[in-house]
Amino acid sequence: MTIDRAIHEKLLKYIIEVTFLDKDAIKDDTLLFEEGIFDSMGLLFLIDFIRDTFHIDTKDSELLVENFASVNRIAAFISKRIGVEESKKLVISGK
Fold first, then answer.
1. Hey, which of 25, 32, 63, 66 would disulfide with 21, CB 3.0 to 4.6 Å?
2. Structural Rg of the chain based on CA atoms
3. Taking the domains of the chain in order of start, what are their residue ranges?
4. Class of the domain covering 3-93
5. How far apart are CA 95 and CA 89, in angstroms?
6. Matching Pfam families, A to Z (predicted)?
7. Looking at residue 83, what is its pLDDT?
8. Distances (CA, A) of 23 to 11, 63, 85, 90
9. Residues 24-80: pLDDT tens digits?
10. CA 58, 77, 70 angle in degrees (round to 5)?
Protein backbone atom coordinates (compact mmCIF):
# COMPACT_ATOMS: atom_id res chain seq x y z
CA MET A 1 0.00 0.00 0.00
CA THR A 2 1.36 3.41 -0.91
CA ILE A 3 1.71 6.12 1.70
CA ASP A 4 -0.92 8.30 0.05
CA ARG A 5 -3.29 5.33 -0.07
CA ALA A 6 -2.73 4.63 3.63
CA ILE A 7 -3.60 8.24 4.46
CA HIS A 8 -6.68 7.97 2.27
CA GLU A 9 -7.80 4.75 3.97
CA LYS A 10 -7.38 6.16 7.49
CA LEU A 11 -9.35 9.23 6.51
CA LEU A 12 -12.14 7.25 4.85
CA LYS A 13 -12.37 4.91 7.85
CA TYR A 14 -12.76 7.91 10.15
CA ILE A 15 -15.48 9.48 8.00
CA ILE A 16 -17.43 6.22 7.83
CA GLU A 17 -17.16 5.76 11.61
CA VAL A 18 -18.38 9.25 12.50
CA THR A 19 -21.15 9.47 9.91
CA PHE A 20 -22.42 5.89 10.28
CA LEU A 21 -22.68 5.73 6.49
CA ASP A 22 -22.00 2.63 4.46
CA LYS A 23 -18.56 2.54 2.86
CA ASP A 24 -20.18 2.58 -0.60
CA ALA A 25 -22.05 5.81 0.23
CA ILE A 26 -18.85 7.88 0.27
CA LYS A 27 -16.81 8.01 -2.91
CA ASP A 28 -13.38 9.59 -3.21
CA ASP A 29 -14.85 12.71 -4.81
CA THR A 30 -18.10 12.93 -2.83
CA LEU A 31 -18.54 16.55 -1.81
CA LEU A 32 -18.76 16.06 1.94
CA PHE A 33 -20.22 19.45 2.84
CA GLU A 34 -22.40 19.96 -0.21
CA GLU A 35 -23.93 16.50 0.28
CA GLY A 36 -24.62 17.27 3.96
CA ILE A 37 -22.29 14.55 5.25
CA PHE A 38 -20.33 17.12 7.28
CA ASP A 39 -21.36 20.46 8.71
CA SER A 40 -19.32 23.05 10.62
CA MET A 41 -19.16 20.82 13.72
CA GLY A 42 -18.10 17.91 11.55
CA LEU A 43 -15.27 20.08 10.21
CA LEU A 44 -14.10 20.83 13.75
CA PHE A 45 -14.06 17.13 14.61
CA LEU A 46 -12.28 16.37 11.32
CA ILE A 47 -9.60 18.93 12.14
CA ASP A 48 -9.16 17.30 15.56
CA PHE A 49 -8.84 13.90 13.89
CA ILE A 50 -6.22 15.24 11.48
CA ARG A 51 -4.28 16.82 14.35
CA ASP A 52 -4.41 13.71 16.52
CA THR A 53 -3.76 11.16 13.78
CA PHE A 54 -1.36 12.95 11.46
CA HIS A 55 0.11 15.52 13.87
CA ILE A 56 -0.95 18.48 11.75
CA ASP A 57 -2.17 21.75 13.17
CA THR A 58 -4.46 23.19 10.54
CA LYS A 59 -4.07 26.94 10.14
CA ASP A 60 -7.07 29.20 9.67
CA SER A 61 -5.70 30.17 6.26
CA GLU A 62 -5.89 26.48 5.23
CA LEU A 63 -9.60 26.11 5.98
CA LEU A 64 -10.51 26.35 2.32
CA VAL A 65 -13.01 24.38 0.25
CA GLU A 66 -10.22 23.10 -1.97
CA ASN A 67 -8.58 21.45 1.06
CA PHE A 68 -11.66 19.85 2.65
CA ALA A 69 -14.31 19.29 -0.02
CA SER A 70 -13.82 15.53 -0.51
CA VAL A 71 -11.85 12.54 0.73
CA ASN A 72 -9.38 12.98 -2.13
CA ARG A 73 -8.85 16.67 -1.37
CA ILE A 74 -8.42 16.11 2.36
CA ALA A 75 -5.96 13.26 1.76
CA ALA A 76 -3.98 15.47 -0.66
CA PHE A 77 -3.93 18.26 1.92
CA ILE A 78 -2.64 15.88 4.59
CA SER A 79 0.00 14.42 2.27
CA LYS A 80 1.17 17.86 1.31
CA ARG A 81 1.43 19.00 4.92
CA ILE A 82 3.27 16.05 6.40
CA GLY A 83 5.47 15.18 3.47
CA VAL A 84 6.71 11.79 2.42
CA GLU A 85 9.01 11.09 5.37
CA GLU A 86 6.38 11.85 8.00
CA SER A 87 3.87 9.76 6.04
CA LYS A 88 6.19 6.78 6.21
CA LYS A 89 6.49 7.10 9.99
CA LEU A 90 2.71 7.17 10.40
CA VAL A 91 2.15 4.14 8.20
CA ILE A 92 4.88 2.15 9.94
CA SER A 93 3.61 3.03 13.43
CA GLY A 94 0.06 2.03 12.44
CA LYS A 95 -1.61 5.14 13.86
1. 25
2. 12
3. 3-93
4. mainly alpha
5. 9
6. PP-binding (PF00550)
7. 76
8. 12, 25, 29, 23
9. 899 999 999 999 999 999 999 999 999 999 989 999 999 999 999 999 999 999 999
10. 105
